[in-house]
Amino acid sequence: MKNFSYTKTPELNEQLVNIEDLRRELLLKPISPQSELKLQWQAFVRLIHFSLAINGNIIPEDHIQKLLSPEGKKNLNTKEKEVISYKHGLDYLFHNWLVNDNPITAKDIVSLYQTVFEGSLKSSESEINNALRYIQINPEHPLLQAALAELIILDLYPFSQNNELFSHLVLLMFLYKNGYDFRRMVVVEQLLFNDLTVFRNLIAKMKKQANVTEWLEYMVSNFVQEMTNVIKTITIEKQSPSLIPLHLQLNQRQQQIVNYLSQPGTKISNAIVQEMFNISQITASRDLAKLTSLGLVFPLGKGRSTYYTKV
Which residues contact 12 (CB under 8 A, 6 or more apart)? Predict the structure, then answer.
């Protein structure tokens, strides 16, 4: 891997200040739990849609919603399987890397990749570790770290397939690690897809030169634009809340399951849900499947040993 360099220009520094102001406003923006869940779900679907679309797999958002519903769909085709796999990668990041003090290593990168894709590692772990050390050795703004990490994957192409699609997950990995999940509503991939020619041309240009300031300015400006859009959306939702779709509405029992898991370290199983509410195994499974599909709980283990946690 070549050595990347960059300059923190006045324009870049100004945009980073904007990022912090917008992040603060986004985190403090009041909104009802129901509306927040709706906006997070819509962003989650858009994130999958546009990430895959950049890679050439264009699946309508309404179809993605159906695939992610508790009912799901049997006999998935190759493109539909990619939706489910990518969701698993996003769940893995949220569950394992949101506010994580550990440095990201090559083993972590490989583990994330294997959660989603079936390709093999082509680069050496030492080469990846050297690149990751370059990003993390000195304190830098999390968004710059994340943008550099994505570019490193795009430059190294360390796996046998899906490197470009994987690079978006690595971007999120570095953002989540530093607590920059932006309330899970920011989908910068939509802007990248809408400007796909510029995006691809810039990647090609960065591969040919060592100074990547232009890449960092491009990525930061896209985040500023998307965060501004999200804040406007929250404001509109607060002023004129729209109906919450039926598949996002939680019944009282499902709300109690989420509340039960609020205490750190708490876990729940199908059997516990049955006992708590005196319901059948099938009803408990449906409740847990719905909460899992919405990203409100996370399953761990397999078969009868499966249990669920909130974080």
Answer: 213, 216, 217, 220
